[in-house]
Amino acid sequence: MKRCGLMLLPALCIPLSAAPYAVDLKPASTTIDWTLDSVLHTVHGTFQLKRGSIVFDPDTGAASGEIVVDTASAESGNGARDRKMHDSVLESVKYPEAVFTPSRIEGKLNLNGSSDIKLQGTFRIHGAAHELTLDVKSQIAGGQINADLTFGIPYVAWGMKDPSTFVLRVSKTVQLTAHVAGAITRR
Fold first, then answer.
1. What confidence tens digit (pLDDT) does each residue in 170-179 have?
2. Of 58, 65, 118, 153, most Cβ neighbours within 10 A?
3. Using an 8 Å Cβ cutoff, are 25 and 53 in contact?
């Protein structure tokens, strides 16, 4: 009997894997800003979050879920420019959503405090999927998460129309920054 008890001891010492966590983003508390450099000035605009949830395992780094952005919500404050952006660049009627599907977290996510991590996944925009890594600075406290994400979208290389004209030249990459907020719970 003692021998059996000793044989079970190593199994009892193996740490159990932590349960996955879920982050449910609040669209009303989330801002998505974009900037596009041009030879004359920098254009600033916004997008709206439709919905977002991420499930991740802090032990393995595995992640899943989706963050969905409403492409029709894109605006820069200039009606003519926004119509051109929706009609010929984003084609937001044909492609009404841009979706990031996370697959992995790189780095240690502190579940109480601040962290700098990378969130890897696939970004589906304008009918095509592209690998993308987001830089994330997060703060978690009291079951709430606030995070700032930054990334660039090489929209021309990804098949969208270049809005440059003979006189006005714009960057081929749009920079995005998002401030997301939501609840974090154990699954």
1. 999 999 999 9
2. 153
3. yes
Q: Nearest to residue 148, comparing CAs of 135, 157, 160?
A: 135
pLDDT of residue 165: 87
What is the rounded distance in angstroms from the CA atom of residue 74 to the CA atom of residue 56?
Answer: 29
Structure tokens at 53: 């949830």
- Spatial CA neighbour of 75 closest among 65, 85, 67, 66: 85
The mean of the pLDDT values for the chain is 91
Model pLDDT for residues 134-180, shown as the tens digit of each residue: 999 999 999 999 999 999 999 999 999 999 988 889 999 999 999 99
**What's this model's pTM, rounded to 2 decimal places?**
0.87
Tens of pLDDT, residue by residue over 4-14, are 444 444 444 43
Contacts 24+ apart (CB under 8 A), 74-80: 74/34, 74/45, 74/46, 74/47, 75/45, 75/46, 76/43, 76/44, 76/45, 77/44, 77/45
What sign does the dihedral 71-72-77-83 (CA atoms) show?
positive
